[in-house]
Write a structure and sequence with these properties.
By secondary structure, this protein is of the alpha/beta class. It is 38% helix and 21% strand. The chain has a domain of 121 residues: UDP-N-acetylmuramoyl-L-alanine:D-glutamate ligase (3-Layer(aba) Sandwich). A hairpin with a 4-residue loop joins strand 13 and strand 14. The termini are far apart. 48% of the residues are buried. The protein binds 2-keto-3-deoxygluconate.
């Protein structure tokens, strides 16, 4: 099997994104996208020159075909995307700019989906071993008990075979019975090598601390790098030796913020693996996130290195003109 750089495991869905802002009850037109946090990151890293692969299950339906074709078309290895003859592909809707301007909310139709039926048998050691990095998120263990076991197996195999593990906390409160269930389950993964998170997730996972205090606690738990995404306020990262914080790029409008965090992860990881310093990695992450929030869809606007450069140079020029 050809070697991979980064492998991931998680659900990919069909996203129906509202064409107009406002409450979904009064939205009449939707645009179809393929999306899912782990897939978004794998597409992003593929655009940035890495060989990526995804372990998942899709339904034996038109949406499953769309997902497989899209991932394959974006250069993600789909040899471990199983078509489940019994399951169906999950779907979710995106409501934009309502009730909070600039924010998006989701409505899921995914319980019992093909991906939620993944088991440990979906994860094989040869595939994990063929990669240098395992990227996982806090969404997969929220899908079902068998998904959690599958994720744990991937985590164990990655540790045993010396892969770098990257974990995005991605606490989706709608998928957990209560916040304490999320914090108990996800604490195991906080000792991954690279941890991506945000202040809202840290409040649930490590309550009663500022985000900087919580980041330092995550380092104590075993992480090597902790990255806190601050949305419109930029991003912060720290290791045992250094810390860095950079502001967000000032962009003219926000179309849909969903997927920005994944674009950030992809660009941060891509630059971190290339050996850039923390501050540079944060800037690349912010740039990728900024590009994604200006369009609907999670990954369509994730940049290549050339696009990143063009965008960042244009932002510099913009600053000089101000
Ligand atoms: O990060 C974006 C994801 O949250 C979105 O694509 C949907 O993967 C998704 C999920 O499970 O919420």
């Amino acid at each position: 099997m050809a070697g991979l750089d980064i492998v991931s495991l998680g659900e990919v869905m069909i996203q129906l994104n509202a064409l107009t802002p406002g409450p979904l009850r009064s939205v009449y037109l939707f645009e179809k996208h393929v999306a899912g946090t782990e897939a978004n990151v794998m597409v992003g890293l593929a655009r940035l020159g890495y060989r990526t692969g995804l372990i998942t299950r899709v339904g034996d339906d038109e949406f499953g075909i769309a997902i497989k074709n899209t991932l394959r078309g974006e250069g993600v290895d789909v040899s471990r995307v199983k078509v489940d003859p019994e399951g169906y592909t999950g779907v979710y809707f995106v409501q934009r700019h309502y009730p909070v301007p600039g924010e998006s909310t989701v409505l899921y139709y995914r319980r019992g989906s093909a991906a939620s039926k993944m088991t440990e048998d979906d994860v094989d050691e040869e595939y994990i071993k063929s990669s240098r990095v395992l990227h996982i998120t806090g969404i997969t263990p929220a899908l079902s008990r068998t998904c959690r076991l599958a994720l744990d197996k991937a985590y164990r195999l990655a540790s045993r075979n010396g892969l770098t593990i990257s974990f995005d906390t991605n606490v989706r409160v709608k998928l957990w019975k209560k916040p304490s269930e999320a914090s108990q389950t996800l604490s195991t993964y906080l000792k991954s090598n690279i941890v991506f998170t945000c202040p809202a997730d840290l409040k649930i996972l490590l309550p009663g601390r500022s985000f900087k205090e919580a980041a330092s606690k995550v380092l104590d738990m075993g992480a090597e790098v902790v990255v806190v995404k601050l949305g419109g306020r930029g991003a912060y990262a720290r290791t045992k030796r250094e810390e860095a914080q950079v502001p967000a790029f000032k962009i003219p409008y926000v179309e849909d913020v969903i997927g920005a965090g994944d674009a950030f992860d992809a660009a941060f990881l891509a630059s971190y693996l290339r050996g850039y310093g923390l501050e540079e990695c944060l800037k690349f992450g912010n740039a990728a996130g900024a590009l994604v929030v200006m369009v609907r869809g999670d990954w369509e606007a994730i940049p290549t290195w050339d696009t990143l450069k063009t965008f960042m140079e244009s932002m510099e020029t913009e600053k000089l003109l101000r």
